[in-house]
Design brief:
Blueprint (H helix, E strand, L loop, with lengths): L2 E5 L12 H7 L4 E3 L8 H11 L2 E6 L19 H18 L3 E3 L10 H19 L4 E4 L15 H11 L4 E6 H7 L3 H8 L3 E6 L15 H10 L5 E4 L26
Parallel strand pairs: 1-2, 1-8, 2-3, 3-4, 4-5, 5-6, 6-7, 7-8
Helix pairs in contact: 2-3, 3-4
């Protein structure tokens, strides 16, 4: 049974961020993820995890100036030193939280630009090797152009090619079912093909990015397919609750803690 991680950036927003850990635990989640922890001291995040018996499944390395529209720096040729500094910041939070994998955002750049491609390859290779020294995985996530127009990494094939080419054992694919369906469709076949390199999975309904089971995909089938494929990692719930987080959790009832292997 999949192990679901509540995404605290999008879920339980009815309460302040640091209170969302308790809300997730009360709802039956035993793992959480979020986009970024950097507005809070690492000790505060670690304390909430320990208090509520939660596992940190994932978070993103610093993305640059998010408020100004930056969505990562890895593919920006003149920002490599900032990528390196951001990795060191992220590692302080990784040490505090015990997370096993971090996501590196690519940034806004043209994937056809050779300079951007070279910058991205360099940043990914350096970051993966730096994280390997801390026994952590690095994951790369293709993001669809509808939600993030202009994002450099918007193709699962491109991500898979780079992962295969670099052949670093801790470099893996972040497979978001929602993004895959919008970008390419044929989600099950891609899961089967790419599963050997998958390091993290995320889910949301298509097209509205709400709760699983409310859109065009057969989410229950896909969750069962993850089991059939032997996926033992987390499934991050990176969706926007349609009408309140608790009100939309009926989909989660068969998976919550205490039901089989639970969340």
């Amino acid at each position: 049974m999949p192990r679901f991680a509540a995404n605290l950036t999008l879920m339980f927003t009815e309460v302040p961020f640091l209170d969302r850990f308790a809300a997730a635990a009360e709802a039956g989640f035993t793992a959480i993820e979020f986009l970024f922890p950097y507005e809070h001291p690492p000790e505060a995040i670690a304390e909430r995890l320990a208090r509520h018996g939660l596992t940190q499944a994932l978070f993103n390395l610093p993305p640059g100036d998010w408020a100004a529209g930056e969505r990562g720096l890895a593919a920006l040729p003149d920002r490599f030193s900032e990528v390196q500094a951001g990795v060191e910041t992220g590692l302080r939070y990784a040490q505090a939280t015990g997370v096993a994998r971090l996501h590196l955002m690519a940034g806004m750049a043209d994937p056809r630009d050779p300079r951007a491609r070279d910058a991205y390859r360099r940043a990914v290779a350096w970051t993966a090797e730096r994280l390997a020294r801390e026994k952590l995985d690095l994951v790369l996530e293709p993001i669809n152009a509808r939600n993030m127009p202009g994002y450099f990494l918007a193709d699962f094939g491109m991500a898979a090619e780079l992962i295969r080419d670099l052949a670093l054992p801790n470099l893996k694919l972040q497979f978001d079912l929602y993004h895959c369906q919008i970008l390419h469709g044929d989600v099950t076949t891609r899961l089967r093909e790419l599963m050997p390199m998958v390091g993290h999975v995320q889910t949301a309904s298509v097209p509205a990015r709400n709760e699983p089971g409310t859109g065009e995909m057969n989410d229950g089938f896909l969750f069962a397919e993850l089991d059939r494929l032997g996926y033992a990692g987390f499934v991050g719930c990176e969706y926007n609750p349609a009408a309140g987080t608790a009100e939309g959790l009926s989909w989660f009832a068969p998976y919550r803690a205490g039901k089989g292997s639970g969340a």
